[in-house]
């Protein structure tokens, strides 16, 4: 196994983490910004108003994006296992 193989595996792993968690983080960001904007307009500073909608949106996003996350992780693990079988690791 060469340094370029190690670099390729690590960069694929980092990209898999980004692709897997990116949609959920984007949902949390958008919902958080909408709630912050609403709180700034109405001056309602309630902690449950920020927490509950964000959690609900994240759970719905997890339900919607689970197949994508599975595909990304499966592709990464298949590649790693193929390297192990071929003697690359």
TrEMBL record:
Q: Which family does it belong to?
A: Belongs to the FliQ/MopD/SpaQ family.
Gene Ontology BP annotations: protein secretion
Q: What is its main location?
A: membrane
Q: GO cellular-component terms in the record?
A: plasma membrane
Q: Which UniProt keywords apply?
A: Cell membrane, Cell projection, Cilium, Flagellum, Membrane, Transmembrane, Transmembrane helix
Gene name, Swiss-Prot/TrEMBL? fliQ
**Record Pfam families:** Bac_export_3
Q: Where in the cell is it found?
A: Cell membrane
In Swiss-Prot or TrEMBL terms, this protein is called Flagellar biosynthesis protein Q
Listed InterPro entries: Bac_export_3
């Amino acid at each position: 196994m060469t340094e370029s193989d190690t670099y390729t595996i690590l960069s694929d792993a980092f990209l898999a983490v980004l692709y897997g968690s990116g949609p959920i983080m984007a949902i949390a960001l958008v919902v958080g910004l909408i709630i912050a904007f609403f709180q700034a307009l109405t001056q309602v500073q309630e902690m449950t108003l920020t927490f509950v909608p964000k959690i609900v949106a994240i759970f719905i996003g997890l339900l919607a994006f689970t197949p994508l996350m599975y595909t990304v992780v499966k592709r990464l693990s298949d590649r790693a296992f193929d390297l192990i079988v071929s003697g690359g690791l």
